[in-house]
Amino acid sequence: MRRTVIAAVTVLIASGLGVLAQSNDPVVQRQNLMKNNQEQVRALTGMARGQVPFNAATAQAAFQRISQNAQQIPGLFPAGSDRGKTDALPAIWQRKADFDARAAKLEQDAKAAQAGFTDQAGLQAVIQRVGQNCGGCHESYRRKES
């Protein structure tokens, strides 16, 4: 019985350390952040298209989350984090100032979008601007899926 308990504790500690190690990995952190941005944009797009009921507070919260995520983007691309399982192109580190400026523009546009609509039609306009930021950055700095 004691061996079983010790083995179980060892497995829990080892798996916990694995999760902790991943959470400190900038590649994993930025992938999780980008997935979160994608979730926010999906929710916003669903509202803008009338696929889900329009809710201004929910939309504003999604834009706020995108803005907060955008603030974190530059720090999640430190030198040397171009290795491993990532779709980030070397151009990020070659043109880091432009990359960081694009993240800042996304942050600004997402903040502006929070107050830039009162109905579904207004949401359609502001989500388009935020989406263009995402697409433009991905065009230049993300490996195309094959």
Furnish the topology, listing elements before pairings:
Layout (H helix, E strand, L loop, with lengths): L1 H22 L2 H23 L7 H17 L18 H4 L1 H19 L5 H22 L5
Helix pairs in contact: 2-3, 2-6, 3-5, 5-6
Number of strands: 0
Number of helices: 6
What is the CA-atom radius of gyration, in angstroms?
19 Å
Helix-residue proportion: over 70%
H/E series, N to C? Answer: HHHHHH
Question: Would you write up a description of this structure?
Answer:
This protein is mainly alpha-helical and 146 residues long. It is built from 6 helices and no strands. It has helices at residues 2-23, 26-48, 56-72, 91-94, 96-114, 120-141. Helix 2 (26-48) runs antiparallel to helix 3 (56-72).
Quick overview:
The protein is an all-alpha fold and 146 residues long.
Which descriptors apply to this entry?
single chain, 146 residues, mainly alpha, 6 helices, 73% helix, 0% strand
